[in-house]
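name: query_chain
kind: protein
chains: 1
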Amino acid sequence: MKPGDLVKFKCPPGSIERVIQYGTFVGFRVFDGKYECAEVMWFNSRAPNGDAVSTVQKDLIEVVL
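structure:
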């Protein structure tokens, strides 16, 4: 995965929400020196704090070919 890639949110197994979300992968961010998350600019939504870019577990997104 590289900045600028089109990504899709993968619903976790057992999730009742099946809305497909697409966005642009921005990069990775490290928290507390050990937790790495992906940063994504979603096309149809904003982060809970109102920012254009939100963090998401990197195993919950996949590159759209």
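note: Residues 6-63 form one domain.
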